[in-house]
């Protein structure tokens, strides 16, 4: 439980402000929701790993996780700051970047699948919010969806999963050590 | 070999060589790299500071019109036009650039006269500008209509209220210091003080008031007491709200007419628009701060992994420096090739760092650190580099590929990022290879030195018997030896375990390095330096004057300009033409222009006419003439201002320039020549008292001819002094630099650096095949001792701690001293008459030595065999021998018990007594009694005889031995040694027991016919495995004949106390107790016994475990899919055929011509020792571990004795 609390805190602080400010106007409940969602995602990844029985071994270090987070923030930053000629270019670039992120830091099929699922769900949720008039996109471009949203969600999912796995590994190690001591 | 493998090998070899190079010449390489970094960063000096630097764009003055406010409607081609060039600028800046000088200069003038009168003219100039009006058909247009009207200053700037204009035109001039009031100026006793009263004392970051009002950087103004050029420059800065070309050109032409600048070459074509970036607010900072936090977390987590080095902080710093300077290099290189960065540097910087990454650095460190510790530093570096070369190259190729893909997104920002990242990656690779590797080598070298230093005290408290130097390694070290590795290792490891808490270590670090103290000192020095430098009357002005003094002494040489006071020198006609750029002005101000022009022409002619005669006249009373020059350095003088100049100026009026731009019009040059009378008039009375005359100590009435010459010589002398000063300063700084470099060298460079250089270069691959990494380590410290003497390949090998027995294919058994490598015995003995010519002289000498020693048998033939007690220490044997009589008196009784070799001495003597009472008939023959025994047992006859012959040879050198032919035909297949008894199994199934020292046959058994493939000799039990798969269990019994007691005399025994106590008089008999006829289907290849169990390994793919006492088969171990070649049992130390265990965590394995040491705990290869240097080195077939951490292995016909203290010490 403590670990979950920790995750929530951590993920809230790590969730980049760009997404929050650009997708939603500032409502008080939005950051907690995002934080909870990312915490859930972070929990989901190690759980799924345990369920599938294939512990994730690729690049399990904090420095790698930090790198992943930095790249994720960079993708956000780029999507917010860089002027693209058109939206298709933006979407393609972001998609390529997200896939690259997954390839660089995850490389697990389960992670990819979960990331796609998360991206789909999150886009759906935000779309529903928009339909219900809770929020409005500043400029919907493609099928009434900001086309870069799924990419960002995908990359976010991968990043959160990375953090979650790292923390889970840490916890496992601690438990193992404790049992060893006993 | 595929292409990949070849490539891989080539890369690894290149990296290896590179690592050697880096580790061999660290200092030159670091210096070279530093120079490279500096060279690549040099273009960065031209760049504005990232983030807030303004951007420029220039348009021609001709038919300029303000850009349209609509964003999309760009005229012209949009590619060149920046995005921000939209709408009207905040203001147009018109600067009137005034250069003024007093001419001709008189010798009795004061230093203040240089600038007082020129400054006084600013009031007049400002009035002219302020009152300028354009009269044309549409009416009168005054400055008030076009200028930028400013309102209140910001409330916080009360003290500037009198100095900056309010509620009116933005018109700045130096006159503002005196509220544009000439009377105030005249009443001001100290102009310099007035000007500098608002200057900040500390390091100034933004524009100062002096810069604002003068409109040009302070050092260009010439308002100081050391102005040797005597030209004063200042500008009148005019802020305009709208661009009125006619008004401006009329102003320009009027000013040029009034104050013409004849030799002005300032270009006036372009309006420069300067766009200012937005100032960064808190909201924009949040993502930036986030990325930087992540970046630092990344760096922290990365560098935390650096371990096992001397200074973690140093290496982490080196890693960060590597990454940062690679970034700087990339920006610098891109700038050099014309790619100006448009991205915000601060924003993309963290991402670049993350992309470039610290991984390679860490991987390198880890790899180098994990190389064997006892190698030389440069080899460690080379190996570490080479190990990781493939992965580094692969990663780099992957990253370059990804970035290349990013380059094809065709988004300009991403392309630029990718370009920077590519250059950054390449330069990072360069730095890693040269800079970081070298730093790492230095660090590791330092660590080794530190280790040595730390180990010294630990050794000092060792017992003195411990050998310190390597040369003593092969000396015979008695029983104390085996204990030493443990004693050595305990102390350092206990030191190492002493881990302080982190904060304590930080505090210790601070305390040790006096970091805070040094920082404060450095800060103070810097602060004092800044203070001195920025002090207006201080060093800077002095330096400036020194520099300006160096300018050619034009004053003295130039022809004096005979221009009368008040008459202005005119420009050439070309200049006059440019005065009238457009028609309307000419029309409107026709009259004045005509007049001025006429005047100009007049003066022109006048000056031309007077020029030559003026020279001859020598107007010496007027002093030297000055000429105002306009050069390229005056071009767009505002560029030399701080880039925060305009924002801060407008900021005073609460006008922000963020994301907006101003247009700077070409400056109007104004040249003022003031005559001496004017200068004298404006002089303040107090100044005469305060200031010394300017450059005129010899103000008196001097000769007309003498004065200029004197002045020039004076100048010359002054210059010489300056030259000397500069030379002295240069010399001093050079010396300091050399000293500094020397100190650095001493700090960084180890004492023995460069002694052997690259002298022992890398051996060719293939020389030593047993090389896991593809390269060979150097000659290791562990030099194997080669035991030579066998004529054929060594078949088998056995050892207890002290002795080493080997047997070659011809059946020759040699007994070696395991410590020294001396050959003690050869079985069978060589012919003493020298027939055995193949024996080398060394061996012969041994033989001789042994033969010349007094023969023991007659005296000691009745003593029991004490072999089991003497296996380690020869020095104790004397004591044992002395204690014999005492023990013997106890051992009077006679008992019928079995002989036990492992029993105590007392028990041995009991046995001894037991055997004494045996009948003569059962005796084996002692020396000289072979004849008696020969009749008894036919089977043993030949053996007995040979034994007799052998022992006879001890005293009778002339006797020859014919009985050896039969034995030589069969070769020895297996060998075991215990005490001084050698058990040899022959190919004809015969089992022989030899005395190792005497070289005599003690017993033999011919019961089996199949060859003995393996032997075990444990206590008094011998197990022989035969070729047909059967196992024979023998028990060894010792009997001592009674009759030897008769020969033995007490005095004679005590007379030779130091002689070995082996008894050759004991009768050893070998009796078959059990036979397992079909233990295995195929020949038994491996046999081990320990703890009452016997393990056999056979070619039939199975292992069997027997009980030693009753030869009962307990288990059959199946699972191998091939013949068993070696069996190792844990309990016994070092029994493997080519596998052994030293201490409890070191494994020795034999390889092709080498032995390797492995750490069992971690599975790391610690070291590989090469037994030979030749290409045809053979596999180490067998390894025996002796108790004193020595290893014996046989390869080919040679034995190798390897002593491994260093490995044990390194292991801790």
Automatic annotation (TrEMBL), chain A:
It is a multi-pass membrane protein. The keyword Repeat does not apply. It holds the Pfam family INSIG. Keywords: Cholesterol metabolism, Endoplasmic reticulum, Lipid metabolism, Lipid-binding, Membrane, Steroid metabolism, Sterol metabolism, Transmembrane, Transmembrane helix. The keyword Transcription does not apply. It is found in: Endoplasmic reticulum membrane. GO terms for cellular component: SREBP-SCAP-Insig complex. The chain crosses the membrane at residues 88-105, 112-131, 143-163. One of its GO terms (biological process) is SREBP signaling pathway. GO terms for molecular function: lipid binding. This is Insulin-induced gene protein. It comes from Patagioenas fasciata monilis.
From TrEMBL, chain B:
GO terms for cellular component: endoplasmic reticulum membrane; ER to Golgi transport vesicle membrane; Golgi membrane; SREBP-SCAP complex. SMART domains: WD40 (SM00320). It is found in: Cytoplasmic vesicle, COPII-coated vesicle membrane; Endoplasmic reticulum membrane; Golgi apparatus membrane. Signal peptide: none annotated. It holds the Pfam family Beta-prop_SCAP. InterPro entries: Beta-prop_SCAP, HMGCR/SNAP/NPC1-like_SSD, SCAP, SCAP_N, SSD, WD40/YVTN_repeat-like_dom_sf, WD40_repeat_dom_sf, WD40_rpt. Its main location: membrane. SUPFAM superfamilies: Multidrug efflux transporter AcrB transmembrane domain, WD40 repeat-like. It is a multi-pass membrane protein. Residues 284-442 form the SSD domain. One of its GO terms (molecular function) is sterol binding. The chain crosses the membrane at residues 20-45, 280-301, 313-339, 351-375, 396-414, 723-748. Keywords: Cholesterol metabolism, Endoplasmic reticulum, Glycoprotein, Golgi apparatus, Lipid metabolism, Lipid-binding, Membrane, Repeat, Steroid metabolism, Sterol metabolism, Transmembrane, Transmembrane helix, WD repeat. One of its GO terms (biological process) is SREBP signaling pathway. Escort protein required for cholesterol as well as lipid homeostasis. Regulates export of the SCAP-SREBP complex from the endoplasmic reticulum to the Golgi upon low cholesterol, thereby regulating the processing of sterol regulatory element-binding proteins (SREBPs) SREBF1/SREBP1 and SREBF2/SREBP2. At high sterol concentrations, formation of a ternary complex with INSIG (INSIG1 or INSIG2) leads to mask the ER export signal in SCAP, promoting retention of the complex in the endoplasmic reticulum. Belongs to the WD repeat SCAP family. This is Sterol regulatory element-binding protein cleavage-activating protein.
């Amino acid at each position: 439980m403590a670990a979950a609390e920790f995750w929530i805190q951590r993920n809230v602080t790590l969730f980049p402000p760009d997404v929050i400010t650009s997708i939603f106007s500032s409502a008080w409940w939005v950051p907690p929701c995002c934080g909870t969602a990312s915490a859930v995602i972070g929990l989901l990844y190690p759980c799924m790993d345990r369920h599938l029985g294939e512990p994730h071994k690729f690049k399990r270090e904090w420095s790698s996780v930090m790198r992943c987070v930095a790249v994720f923030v960079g993708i956000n930053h780029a999507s917010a700051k860089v002027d693209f000629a058109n939206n298709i270019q933006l979407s393609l670039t972001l998609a390529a970047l997200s896939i690259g992120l997954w390839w660089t830091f995850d490389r697990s099929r389960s992670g990819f699948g979960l990331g796609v699922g998360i991206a789909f769900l999150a886009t759906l949720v935000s779309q529903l919010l928009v339909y219900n008039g809770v929020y409005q996109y500043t400029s919907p471009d493609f099928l009434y969806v900001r086309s870069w949203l799924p990419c960002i969600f995908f990359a976010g999912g991968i990043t959160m999963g990375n953090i979650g796995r790292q923390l889970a590994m840490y916890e496992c190690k601690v438990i193992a050590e404790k049992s060893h001591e006993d | 070999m595929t292409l990949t493998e070849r490539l891989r090998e080539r890369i690894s070899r290149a990296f290896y060589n590179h690592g050697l190079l880096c580790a061999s010449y660290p200092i030159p390489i670091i210096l070279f790299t530093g120079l490279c970094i500096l060279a690549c960063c040099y273009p960065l000096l031209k760049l504005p500071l990232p983030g807030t630097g303004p951007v420029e764009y220039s348009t021609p003055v001709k038919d300029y019109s303000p850009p349209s406010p609509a964003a999309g409607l760009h005229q012209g081609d949009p590619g060149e036009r920046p995005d921000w060039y939209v709408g009207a600028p905040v203001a147009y800046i018109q600067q009137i650039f005034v250069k003024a000088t007093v001419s001709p200069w008189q010798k009795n003038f004061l230093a203040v006269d240089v600038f007082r009168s020129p400054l006084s003219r600013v009031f007049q100039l400002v009035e002219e500008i302020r009152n300028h009006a354009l009269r044309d058909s549409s009416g009168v247009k005054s400055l008030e209509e076009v200028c930028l009207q400013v309102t209140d200053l910001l409330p916080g700037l009360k003290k500037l209220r009198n100095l900056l204009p309010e509620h009116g035109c933005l018109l700045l001039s130096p006159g503002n210091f005196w509220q544009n009031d000439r009377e105030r100026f005249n009443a001001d006793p100290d102009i310099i003080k007035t000007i500098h009263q608002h200057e900040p004392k500390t390091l100034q970051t933004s524009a100062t008031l002096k810069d604002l009002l003068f409109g040009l950087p302070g050092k260009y103004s010439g308002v100081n007491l050391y102005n040797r050029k005597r030209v004063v420059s200042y500008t009148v800065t005019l802020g305009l709200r709208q661009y009125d070309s006619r008004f401006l050109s009329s102003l320009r032409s009027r000013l040029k007419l009034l104050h013409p600048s004849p030799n002005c070459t300032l270009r006036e074509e372009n309006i420069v628009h300067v766009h200012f970036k937005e100032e960064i607010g808190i909201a924009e900072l949040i993502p930036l701060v986030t990325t930087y936090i992540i970046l630092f977390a990344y760096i922290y987590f990365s560098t935390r992994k650096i371990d096992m080095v001397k200074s973690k902080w140093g290496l982490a710093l080196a890693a960060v420096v590597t990454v940062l300077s690679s970034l700087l290099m990339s920006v610098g290189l891109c700038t050099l090739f014309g790619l100006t960065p448009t991205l915000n540097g601060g924003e993309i910087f963290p991402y670049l760092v993350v992309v470039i990454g610290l991984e390679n650095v860490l991987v390198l460190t880890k790899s180098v650190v994990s190389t064997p510790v006892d190698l030389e530093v440069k080899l460690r570096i080379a190996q570490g580099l080479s190990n990781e070369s493939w992965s580094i190259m692969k990663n780099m190729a992957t990253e370059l590929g990804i970035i290349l893909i990013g380059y094809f997104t065709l988004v300009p920002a991403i392309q630029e990022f990718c370009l920077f990242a590519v250059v950054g990656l390449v330069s990072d690779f360069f730095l890693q290879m040269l800079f970081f590797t070298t730093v790492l080598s230095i660090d590791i070298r330092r660590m080794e030195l530190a280790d040595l230093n730390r180990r010294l005290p630990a050794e000092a408290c060792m017992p003195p018997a411990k050998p310190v130097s390597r040369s003593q390694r092969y000396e015979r070290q008695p029983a104390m030896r085996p204990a030493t590795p443990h004693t050595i290792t305990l102390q350092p490891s206990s030191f190492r375990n002493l881990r302080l808490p982190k904060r304590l270590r930080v505090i210790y670090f601070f305390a040790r390095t006096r970091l805070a103290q040094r920082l404060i000192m450095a800060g103070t020095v810097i602060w004092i330096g800044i203070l001195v430098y920025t002090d207006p009357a201080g060093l800077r002005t002095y330096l400036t004057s020194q520099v300006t003094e160096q300018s050619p002494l034009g004053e003295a040489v130039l022809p004096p300009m005979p221009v009368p006071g008040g008459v202005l020198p005119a420009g050439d006609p070309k200049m006059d033409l440019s005065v009238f750029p457009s028609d309307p002005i000419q029309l409107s101000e026709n009259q004045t222009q005509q007049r001025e022009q006429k005047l100009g022409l007049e003066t022109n002619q006048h000056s031309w006419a007077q020029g030559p005669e003026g020279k001859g006249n020598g107007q010496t009373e007027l002093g030297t003439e000055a000429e105002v020059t306009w050069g390229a350095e005056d071009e767009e003088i505002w560029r030399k201002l701080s880039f925060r100049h305009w924002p801060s100026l407008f900021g005073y009026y609460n006008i922000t320039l963020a994301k907006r731009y101003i247009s700077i019009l070409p400056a109007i040059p104004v040249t003022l020549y003031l005559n001496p009378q004017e200068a004298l008039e404006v002089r303040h009375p107090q100044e005469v008292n305060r200031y010394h005359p300017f450059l005129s100590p010899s103000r008196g009435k001097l000769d007309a001819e003498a004065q200029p010459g004197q002045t020039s010589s004076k100048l010359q002398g002054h210059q010489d002094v300056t030259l000397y000063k500069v030379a002295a300063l240069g010399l001093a700084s050079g010396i300091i630099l050399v000293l500094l470099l020397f100190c650095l060298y001493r700090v960084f460079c180890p004492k023995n650096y460069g002694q052997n250089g690259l002298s022992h270069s890398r051996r060719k691959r293939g020389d030593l095949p047993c090389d896991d990494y593809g390269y060979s380590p150097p000659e290791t410290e562990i030099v194997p001792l080669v035991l030579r003497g066998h004529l054929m390949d060594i078949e088998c090998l056995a050892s207890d701690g002290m002795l080493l027995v080997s047997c070659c294919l011809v059946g020759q058994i040699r007994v070696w001293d395991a410590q020294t490598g001396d050959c003690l015995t050869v079985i069978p003995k060589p012919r003493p008459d020298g027939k055995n010519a193949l024996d080398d002289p060394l061996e012969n000498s041994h033989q001789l030595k042994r033969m010349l020693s007094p023969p023991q048998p007659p005296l000691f033939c009745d003593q029991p065999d004490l072999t089991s007690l003497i296996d380690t220490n020869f020095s104790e044997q004397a004591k044992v021998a002395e204690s014999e009589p005492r023990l013997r008196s106890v051992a009077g009784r006679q008992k019928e018990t079995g002989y036990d070799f492992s029993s105590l001495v007392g028990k041995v003597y009991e046995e001894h007594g037991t055997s004494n009472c045996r009948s003569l008939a059962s005796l084996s023959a002692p020396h000289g009694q072979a004849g008696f025994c020969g009749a008894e047992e036919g089977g043993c006859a030949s053996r007995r005889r040979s034994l007799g012959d052998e022992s006879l040879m001890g005293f009778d050198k002339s006797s020859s031995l014919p009985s050896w032919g039969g034995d030589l035909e069969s070769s020895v297949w297996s060998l075991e040694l215990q005490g001084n008894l050698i058990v040899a199994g022959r190919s004809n199934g015969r089992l022989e027991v030899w005395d190792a020292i005497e070289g005599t046959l003690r017993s033999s058994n011919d019961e089996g016919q199949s060859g003995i493939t393996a032997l075990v000799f444990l206590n008094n039990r011998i197990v022989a495995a035969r070729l047909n798969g059967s196992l024979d269990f023998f028990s060894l019994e010792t009997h001592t004949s009674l009759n030897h007691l008769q020969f033995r005399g007490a005095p004679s025994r005590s007379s030779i106390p130091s002689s070995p106590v082996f008894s050759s008089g004991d009768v050893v008999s070998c009796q078959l107790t059990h036979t397992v006829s079909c233990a295995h289907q195929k020949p038994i290849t491996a046999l081990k016994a320990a703890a009452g169990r016997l393990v056999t390994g056979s070619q039939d793919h199975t292992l069997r475990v027997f009980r030693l006492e009753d030869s009962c088969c307990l288990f059959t171990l199946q699972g191998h899919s091939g013949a068993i070649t070696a069996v190792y049992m844990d309990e016994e130390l070092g029994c493997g055929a080519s596998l052994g265990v030293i201490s409890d965590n070191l494994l020795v394995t034999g390889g092709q011509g080498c032995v390797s040491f492995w750490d069992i705990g971690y599975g790391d290869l610690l070291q590989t020792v090469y037994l030979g240097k030749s290409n045809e080195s053979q596999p180490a077939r067998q390894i025996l571990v002796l108790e004193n951490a020595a290893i014996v292995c046989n390869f080919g016909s040679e034995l190798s004795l390897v002593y491994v203290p260093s490995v044990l010490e390194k292991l801790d």
